[in-house]
Amino acid sequence: MGKLNIKLAFLLLLVNFTYKGSAQNNTVLGTESLLVKTNTSVVLTGETLYYQLYCLNKTTVFSDISEVAYLEVINNRKESIFKTKISLKNGIGSGDYFIPTTLTTGNYKLIAYTSWMLNNSQNNFFEKDFTVINPFEEHINMIIDSTSKKPKVYKNTSEGIVLNLDKEKYFKREKATLVIPKTLDKGNYFLNIRKIDFIPTNSNNEIINTDINLKQDIKVLPETRGEIITGYITSKAANANLNSKIVTLSIPGKNFIFKTTKTNSSGKFTFLIDKQTSASNCYVQLSESDRENYAITVDKTPSPDLSNLIFSNKTAISPKNLKAIQERSLATQVENVYFSQKKDSLIDAVNTDLFFEPTEKNYNLDSFERFRTFKETIIEIVTELNFKDYNQVPSLYLRNSRFNITQSPEPCLVLVDGLQIQDINALLNYNAYQIQSISVVDRPYCYGPKIFNGIVSLITKNNDFASIYTDKNILKTTILRPEPAKVYFEPKYEISNTLNRVPDYRYQLLWKPNIAFKNSEMAISFYTSDIAGDYEILLEGVNETGNYIHFYKTFKIE
Question: Which residue positions does the secretion signal occupy (predicted)?
Answer without folding.
Answer: 1-23
